[in-house]
Amino acid sequence: MDFKYYVFYKPYNVLTQFTKEREDHNTLSDYLNVEKDVYPVGRLDKDSEGLLLLTNDKSINDKLLNPIKKHKRSYFVQVENEVSENAIDALIKGVDIKLEKGSYRTKPCSVKKLSKPPVLPERNPPIRVRQNIPTSWALIELTEGKNRQVRKMFASVGFPVLRLVRTQIEDLKLNKLDPGKYYTLGAEELCKLLKIELINSPKIKKNTSSVRKSDFTKSETKKPSESKPIKGSYLSYRGKSRKK
User: Fold this and answer.
1) Is 57 a catalytic residue?
2) Model's pTM, two decimal places?
3) Residue 199 has what pLDDT?
4) Which of 45, 89, 171, 215 is catalytic?
5) Which residues 6+ apart lie within 8 Å of 91 measured at CB?
6) What is the H or E stretch that residue 153 is in?
7) Which architecture does CATH list for 5-66+171-238?
């Protein structure tokens, strides 16, 4: 089987699914032109942004998402007010958060307060900033991924999250992607970056792509043509429709 691996920058206000349950929902199908059997590995909340891996290789799910594997995920977090050192220390040691089945104590993790905002694309729309109330940024690295865990962790120490961007899974990074764009990797390189066992799959030529919503009308279904990468760039354009 010809496995495909896509690294996508999920924008804010986009559901991590291809099916539109309502016409006004923004989904992956608005941005990605991929094979019908390709699906996301894990999720990002609608109001979270950043790195999302998609593939038709089902073995990746267990290799990457099984909590026993303890794969590191990195997030930039913008919070209301200046996050305190006491809060950082508490997050590092573990805090109690509420899950569907009751209270959960988070595992020890790495948290650092940033002295200045990270270099990120602007969010659309921008966050709502309250007058005379500062914001601050932190970098958190986890090896677990409970439902809305990062938001709940910071809320538990008194600092509501304003913006959350996943930038890295192990050594797999967004690189210079803009929101709504993606690039592809071969199996060997992907496994090396994710620090997982090599998948027995054909090597796939590295390619990159972005999507323009205006390429096709809703009634059109076209198979995108392969285009040579532009010199000096890792992005090339593809259509909106998902491959059949």
Assistant:
1) no
2) 0.80
3) 59
4) 45
5) 106, 109, 111, 140, 153, 154, 157
6) helix 149-156
7) 2-Layer Sandwich (3.30)
